[in-house]
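2024-03-11 09:14:02 INFO worker-7 job=invfold-0412 stage=load source=structure_tokens
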């Protein structure tokens, strides 16, 4: 990778962001949030801060009309990058036939170092990466799963480096705790492409090629508008957020709470509870159960992604609250089944993980070729309800929807 990019990167990287998807993951973030709401269900970790995205396009009409707001989001990316970068569309990340052949002739190798592999999103990322690396003649020599444990991910990186890969594609569990390991990889000449977030103190164009993400802020906005649509813009809701310094989940929380507060005065956020994992479903079940006990008239709960949403569904079943409205982010099979069967999950904002994997692998090839890469690539949010569930699954995973959606 060309080391002459430091001046360009210094111009692009204008803003430092407090959270990452930012320093100290795994555990609870105890800093005071800028958008905190009193939690009536008892004491809890405080929500993480994040740099606010441009919300001008999220302002809703004075009447209750979430549908119009959702339509306006179809071709818009609201997120900025971890360091305030302006998003570039994934469709602009391309290689010529000659560049593809040049990469294939290198006989390069790659390692995929995941934060956590226990969901459909992670597997779709891996699928997109492996398919594209295969097309480019790049051998994948390792795929690791840190189970959201920073120390384990550091060990994974060290183990992978012993295999001398040319490429690492990875999502940091904690941008501070893992920074030295990623820096070691960069110093060894490894081309690094990040998913969602960047390890601390690393410079784009010098230490890493690029970062690729979904529009996580946009997905939080989508989930808020869907909640309002399901509630006809009136009611009380709870929020189950990720109590960690993790950029993209902090974006989702910021977006959901800001959109509800600023656009829907008839909806009150009555309770918030953070979860630290790694048992995200179990932690969310306990959090949702506490909310439903303390707020028996709660109309809805937002969960930060699909696995915590599964815990919310379990709590709702135990409480006999099949009328509870749930919205979330990520189209996992279990929340998709709930949507298909008319269960508590009304809808969600979906990422496009397979396409993210394609973009990441292609950007890794940019690194091998010393081709100038955009600092931040983002894919727009996809609103999903029962009306477009099957089509959305095909878009997200590039495969037919599960039979469970029609049973």
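2024-03-11 09:14:09 INFO worker-7 stage=emit residues=407
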């Amino acid at each position: 990778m060309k080391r002459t990019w430091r001046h360009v990167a210094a111009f692009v990287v204008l803003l430092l962001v407090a959270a990452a998807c930012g320093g100290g993951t795994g555990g609870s973030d105890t800093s005071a949030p800028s958008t905190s709401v009193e939690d009536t269900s008892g004491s809890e970790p405080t929500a993480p801060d994040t740099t606010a995205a441009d919300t001008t396009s999220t302002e809703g009409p004075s009447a209750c009309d979430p549908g119009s707001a959702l339509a306006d989001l179809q071709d818009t990316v609201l997120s900025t990058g971890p360091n305030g970068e302006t998003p570039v569309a994934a469709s602009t990340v391309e290689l010529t036939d000659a560049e593809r052949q040049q990469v294939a002739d290198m006989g390069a190798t790659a390692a995929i170092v995941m934060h956590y592999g226990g969901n459909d999103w992670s597997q779709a990322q891996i699928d997109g990466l492996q398919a594209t690396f295969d097309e480019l003649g790049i051998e994948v020599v390792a795929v690791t799963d840190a189970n959201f444990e920073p120390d384990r991910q550091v060990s994974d990186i060290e183990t992978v480096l012993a295999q001398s890969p040319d490429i690492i594609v990875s999502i940091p569990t904690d941008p501070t705790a893992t920074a030295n390991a990623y820096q070691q990889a960069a110093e060894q000449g490894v081309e690094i492409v990040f998913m969602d977030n960047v390890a601390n103190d690393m410079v784009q164009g010098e230490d890493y090629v690029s970062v690729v993400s979904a529009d996580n802020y946009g997905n939080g906005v989508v989930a808020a508008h869907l909640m309002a649509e399901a509630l006809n813009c009136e009611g009380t809701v709870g929020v189950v957020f990720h109590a960690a310094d993790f950029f993209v989940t902090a974006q989702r929380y910021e977006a959901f709470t800001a959109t509800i507060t600023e656009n829907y005065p008839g909806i009150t956020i009555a309770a918030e509870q953070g979860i630290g994992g790694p048992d995200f479903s179990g932690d969310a079940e306990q959090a949702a159960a506490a909310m439903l006990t303390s707020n028996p008239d709660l109309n809805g709960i937002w969960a930060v992604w699909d696995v915590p949403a599964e815990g919310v569904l379990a709590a709702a079943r135990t409480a006999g609250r099949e009328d509870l409205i749930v919205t979330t982010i990520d189209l996992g099979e279990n929340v998709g089944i709930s949507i298909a069967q008319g269960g508590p999950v009304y809808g969600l904002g979906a990422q496009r993980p397979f396409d993210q994997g394609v973009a990441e692998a292609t950007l890794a090839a940019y690194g091998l070729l010393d081709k100038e890469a955009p600092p931040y690539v983002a894919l727009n949010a996809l609103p999903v309800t029962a009306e477009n569930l099957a089509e959305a699954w095909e878009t997200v995973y590039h495969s037919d929807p599960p039979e469970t959606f029609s049973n």
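2024-03-11 09:14:09 INFO worker-7 stage=report msg="Residues 19-81+216-352+383-405 form a domain with the Rossmann fold fold (CATH 3.40.50.2300)."
2024-03-11 09:14:10 INFO worker-7 job finished
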